[in-house]
């Protein structure tokens, strides 16, 4: 009797989980599919049923988005900023997380506390101070060399992105490095490997699942970021989210919806491609196997 009740409870629990997951999947897939279909509709088709399928493939929407709305330029800027920000972030965060998690030295606890404190800083609240700081530095540079280059600069925006993402990235990587057994480091030390060789050849490959998660999370963060890009790039070199908002405002006022949805697809497509590429890594276990004797 007790076993039957337990089996009934387990069946109800599994049913609830399946229903919740299916509902969540449908709520995500349907809007994304609708945007993709809307991107290939002609403008007259939007005046009928919003759920009607397109009569054909109207790729002119993408051509207009790239040519008239300069989405190609915005796409290039986003790729440059995101790739550079990820590179800077990983170059700094990986060694920092490894050292903070695997070595004991004076000031280690203080540095870890500073990293954890950075998790509670909302980037939106410090956007204006960062802008004013860069503006003052630009004014100082103009007085010295008659040229300021800190605003409307893709490299500076990438550096700001990387700096604001450092606390979370270091914290996540440190937490993973702490779970790795020390046997591998001891074996590498016996074989004569130094600290750098041990980190790059042994520890980083073992931490690859966590590194992939960090890359995917920060890619989405940098790719979709709007407030910082709008504030620090007021005169040019704007990224896709800023360009998409400009496109939406222009096409909505012109009652031309096709290019607007085409712009949305241009923004979404790279993230979907990246997810398809790394999904196998994301599904890997986050635990490290035992050391073989």
TrEMBL record:
Membrane topology per the entry is: Multi-pass membrane protein
Q: Which domain of life is it from?
A: Bacteria
Chain ranges passing through the membrane: 12-40, 79-101, 113-135, 155-177, 198-223, 260-278
ABC transmembrane type-1 domain residues are: 75-278
Provide the primary localization: membrane
| Localization of this protein | Cell membrane
Question: Could you give a single Gene Ontology term from the biological process aspect?
Answer: transmembrane transport
Quote the CDD domains the UniProt record gives. Answer: TM_PBP2
Q: Please give the coiled-coil regions recorded for this protein.
A: none
* PROSITE patterns membership: ABC_TM1
GO CC field: plasma membrane
Q: Which Pfam families match?
A: BPD_transp_1
Q: Which UniProt keywords apply?
A: Cell membrane, Membrane, Transmembrane, Transmembrane helix, Transport
Which InterPro entries does the record cross-reference, listed alphabetically?
BP-dep_ABC_trans_perm, MetI-like, MetI-like_sf
Q: Which family does it belong to?
A: Belongs to the binding-protein-dependent transport system permease family.
- Name of the featured protein: Carbohydrate ABC transporter permease
């Amino acid at each position: 009797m007790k076993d039957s009740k337990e089996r009934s409870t387990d069946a109800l629990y599994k049913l609830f989980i399946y229903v919740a997951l299916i509902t969540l999947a449908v709520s995500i897939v349907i809007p994304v599919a609708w945007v993709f279909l809307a991107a290939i509709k002609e403008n007259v088709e939007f005046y009928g049923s919003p759920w009607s399928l397109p009569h054909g493939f109207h790729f002119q929407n993408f051509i207009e988005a790239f040519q008239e709305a300069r989405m190609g330029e915005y796409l290039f800027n986003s790729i440059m900023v995101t790739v550079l920000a990820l590179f800077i972030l990983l170059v700094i965060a990986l060694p920092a997380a490894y050292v903070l998690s695997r070595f004991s030295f004076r000031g280690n606890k203080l540095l870890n506390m500073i990293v954890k404190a950075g998790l509670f800083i909302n980037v939106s609240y410090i956007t204006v101070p960062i802008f004013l700081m860069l503006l003052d530095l630009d004014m100082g540079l103009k007085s010295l060399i008659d040229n300021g280059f800190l605003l409307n600069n893709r490299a500076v925006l990438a550096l700001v992105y990387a700096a604001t993402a450092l606390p979370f990235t270091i914290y996540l990587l440190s937490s993973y490095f702490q779970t790795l057994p020390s046997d591998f480091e001891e074996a590498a030390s016996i074989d004569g490997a130094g600290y750098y060789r041990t980190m790059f050849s042994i520890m980083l490959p073992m931490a690859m699942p966590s590194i992939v998660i960090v890359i995917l999370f920060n890619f989405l963060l940098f790719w979709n970021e709007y407030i910082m890009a709008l504030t620090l790039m007021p005169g040019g070199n704007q990224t896709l989210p800023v360009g998409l908002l400009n496109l939406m405002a222009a096409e909505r006022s012109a009652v031309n919806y096709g290019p607007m949805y085409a712009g949305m697809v241009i923004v979404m497509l790279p993230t979907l491609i990246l997810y398809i590429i790394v999904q196998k890594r994301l599904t890997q276990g986050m635990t490290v196997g035992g050391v073989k004797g």
